[in-house]
Design goal:
Strand order of the largest sheet: 3-2-1-4-5-7-6
Largest sheet: 7 strands, mixed
Shape: globular
Distance between the termini: 13 Å
Number of helices: 6
Helix content: 25-40%
CATH class: Alpha Beta
Number of strands: 7
Order of helices and strands: EHEHEHEHEEHHE
Length: 210
């Protein structure tokens, strides 16, 4: 990991990146890598009428700051939730711009087995845009019909604490069961046991370039 200088996290919606690889983001940031976080929807038109449309934009800024992502490395779009397929070409064009600008060493996308329609688009178009980069698919168990744990990133207590603290920033989403700290720690423990350490996050290898 120490050789990775530019890391790109592609999150369909705010909080997806933290849920899928928040510990890994914290680890890369702590090691001095240049981490970019891109969310393709702040869900402004999907929020309840009594909630400010910028609520999730504010929360993702706070959450990624906890993980160590620089404010200038947070990039937000606002494609309509559950309609990414209609904007597939626009999303691909934005991804190509990111590829040309950042030339990342490694890209994190949702798992190819993720059944959420927006997640599928980011996974598929991410592979198209970054076909010359190493790509790992992150885990979201409530969306994955299958998940091949082919790659693991070891984490320590500090990384897990930062992941949990970052998710606490999503106060508008606190009713969601998968934001539960016990769940986050338990999954990291399971993945750690698989490779003989205390904590880890698991990934599918979509493309690995050496």
């Amino acid at each position: 990991m120490n050789n990775k200088k530019v890391v790109l996290i592609l999150a369909p919606h705010t909080d997806d990146g933290e849920l899928g690889c928040g510990g890994t983001i914290a680890k890369f940031c702590s090691e001095g890598s240049d981490v970019y976080y891109v969310a393709f929807s702040i869900c402004s038109r999907s929020l309840p009428p009594d909630m400010h449309p910028q609520t999730l934009a504010i929360e993702v800024a706070n959450a990624t700051k906890v993980l160590g992502v620089k404010n200038e490395n947070l990039i937000l779009f606002d494609f309509d939730v559950r309609r990414f397929k209609e904007f597939r070409q626009e999303i691909l064009e934005e991804l190509i711009k990111l590829k040309n600008k950042l030339n990342p060493d490694i890209v994190f996308v949702p798992s190819p087995t993720d059944i959420h329609q927006d997640h599928q688009v980011i996974s598929e178009e991410g592979l198209r845009a970054f076909k010359n980069c190493s790509i790992l698919g992150y885990e979201m168990p409530w969306n994955n019909v299958a998940f091949n744990t082919r790659s693991f990133i070891k984490l320590n207590e500090e990384h897990i604490v930062k992941k949990i603290e970052s998710l606490i920033e999503y106060k508008s989403q606190n009713e969601r069961t998968y934001l539960n700290a016990d769940f986050i720690r338990s999954l990291a423990t399971i993945r750690g046991i698989q490779i003989g350490c205390k904590y880890a996050e698991a990934f599918e290898v979509i493309r690995w370039i050496i």
